[in-house]
Design goal:
The chain is built from two helices and 16 strands. The chain has helices at about 1-15, 230; strands at about 25-35, 40-45, 50-55, 65-75, 80-90, 95-105, 105-115, 115-125, 145-150, 160-170, 175-180, 185-195, 200-205, 210-215, 220-225, 240-245. The strands form two sheets. It has an eight-stranded antiparallel beta barrel with strand order 1-2-3-4-5-6-7-8.
Amino acid sequence: MKKTIITAMMCLMAVIGVRAQENITYEAWEGTLNKGKTPVQVFMEKRDDGLVAGWIRYPQAQKPEYIFLVGNAGEQESVGQYISIYEYQKNGHQNGGMFLKKEGNTYSGTWQHLDKEIDIVLTGNIDYPEELKGQLTPATRKEIGRRYTFSYDHITGDERGGTAEFTIKGTEKLSYNISVYAPNIAEGEGVGALFNNIMTGVEEEANYEFHAEFFPRFCIITDIVGPEMGFYGAWTSFAHVYIKR
C-alpha cells in the first residue's frame, strides 16, 4: 500500500504542468477510522484533471478543526478508481495520508502516519459547508503569497522539507527563491513568467524547468525537465505541494 500512495502522489506532480479544464465537483462524506472507533468527516473538491483539495475533520477530537487536504484522483487497472490525498498542517507539515478506493457509494482504504496504518471507511453523504469551498479556484494576484513551505515524509519519517518565496515583478513576472532539502539541497532563484495563474521558472545552469500553479491556500510546483544528477544530487527536485504561510 505504501508504494501505491507514493506512486499516486507522483502522478499528481505529472498532471499539473498544463492548465486543465475548470470544472470542479464537490463531495462530502462521513465515516470512521480504525474499525469504526473514530468518527471522521472528509470534504473533497475535484478538478477534471484529477487534482483534489479539501478538508478532513475528526469530530471527537479534543479541539475539532478542519485539516487541509491536497491529492489526486484517478484510475489504475490494478485498483480501479482511487483517491490519494495528504493532510497538511498550517505550517506545511504532512500529518498523514489516505489511499481510498471507490466502490459504488463507498470509499474505503487506509489512513497512514509513519509506520501506523489503519482502515478508513466513508459511507455517509453529508452537506458541504459553503465557507469551505473554493480551494481549487485559481488564486488572484493578491492571493499569491510571498512564502510557501512543506515538510515531510510521514511515510518514511525522513526529515525533508523546503520553502518557496515569490515576489510580484511587473504585470507578468514573479521573482522566485526556492530551497529544498529532499534529501539533497536544491536551490534556485530568478524571475519567471506568470500566465493564467501558472508561473514557468527556468534554472539555466542546471537545464531545469518547473511550473508553479497558485491557489488561495497553496501552490504546486511541478518539474518539467529533471535536473542533472550531479547538479542538485540524486532524487532532488522542487516538485511538491507548498502551503502558503
